[in-house]
Amino acid sequence: MTARLIDGKALAEQVRAGVAERVTRLRAASRQPALAVILVGADPASQVYVRNKIAACEKAGIRSLHETFGADLREAELLARIHALNHDDTVHGILVQLPLPAHIDAQRVIEAISPRKDVDGFHVASAGALMVGQPGFRPCTPLGCVRMLEHIGMGDLRGKHAVVVGRSNIVGKPMAMMLLGMNATVTIAHSGTPDLAETCRRADVLVAAVGRPRMIGADMIKPGAVVIDVGINRLADGSLCGDVDFAAARERAGWITPVPGGVGPMTIAMLLSNTVQACEQA
Ligand code: GUN
Question: What is the tens place of the pLDDT at every residue in 73-89?
Fold first, then answer.
């Protein structure tokens, strides 16, 4: 079997077109969604992500404020800046690019963002709302994965087993909660899970979010499974690859997301969607 591709790039274009329409409606009412993107330090990968987010905002008609600070920025200064943005009615979303330098407490910074502007969905209030099934901003990467599953007709996972490999607060844990909300039976595994291959082989839906190049081999995939690859790893030769051994997995899975062109574009589209939602709710 050769898996069908879930084209994140094309689906993200559709989402972005819907976002652009909502922006047009808001602007007709003299309201323009705005996103503040804060980058601390000069991590090259973060610089690329931030640049892509800002370009996507501009394309969708969302105003962006790009604020860059040196790696020696004091935590108190960052908190003060967030406080000011919380009280700025012309700003609807606030995103602090992670990781932050080690001397800054990232969780304290996230908690400083008003939950009404937490378009990343990382605030404890957002995480709690997801846990108990209440409205709130959902983290963009797992939300993009959900949209992809819905797109291929897997919006209801009753009777299916989903396995998430990875336990980060920004992908693995919220992803597992969202899959539970879709009625799946969910296992959260990680690189230290005993018999990881066997656990993965039980998955009708396998989400890989570990950050290790090609660690999910074809032998870890149930024939016909849906494989969602969240990993974006840069290899020594400069090329990108996912957490899944794509070429081999493609011969076993039923559906698979490519890297690049899979989850990545969906993450940005969901950020735009959350930002417009924040403006609509303001
Ligand atoms: N770093 C890696 N992924 C993300 C993300 O989705 N949001 C933020 N703010 N930082 C990140």
Answer: 999 999 999 999 999 99
Q: Are residues 72 and 173 in the same domain?
A: no
The set of protein residues with a Cβ atom below 6 angstroms from ligand 1 is 95-98, 120, 140-141, 170
Looking at the fold, whether 254 and 191 belong to one and the same domain comes out as: yes
Instruction: Read off the pTM.
Output: 0.97
Please report which residue ranges of 61-123 form alpha helices under DSSP H.
75-86, 106-112
Same domain, 166 and 219: yes
Which residue's CA is the closest to the ligand 1 atom numbered 8?
A: 97
Two tokens at 258?
């490519």
Residue nearest to atom 1 of ligand 1 (CA): 98
Q: Based on the residue annotation, tell me whether 118 is a catalytic residue of this protein.
A: no
Q: Residue 243 domain-assigned?
A: yes
pLDDT under 70 in the chain at which residues? Answer: none
CA angle 6, 37, 234 (to 5 degrees): 45
Residue 89: domain span: 30-114
